[in-house]
Amino acid sequence: MKCVADKREREKRMVSEMIALYCRKKHQTKGVLCPACAELQAYACKRSDQCPFMETKTFCSNCKVHCYKPAMREEIRKVMRFSGPRMLFSHPIMAISHMIESHKEKKRLEALK
Fold first, then answer.
1. Domain residues for 68?
2. CB distance 94 to 101 below 8 Å
């Protein structure tokens, strides 16, 4: 169970960093999230805490069940599209780990087909 808890914490840390980067660049905040981004972060962390598929999935984008409300899902997509490429410059180790995990998951899913 510790592995799942670690995975959950890594996912929450990654999404929190991406939201913080987005908020800093798009909303010109410094050190504190704007109310909309803080709400999105709290929502994303709550969804991660309640995810029943954490043992088998790598990222929400690979999940068959989308538990985000449509409006929040669109917001998180905007954040991911913006922050994803920029994470390589602000958090290179985290970004590279994320890319490696994504690549492994893609290969695993292809092997199941």
1. 2-112
2. no
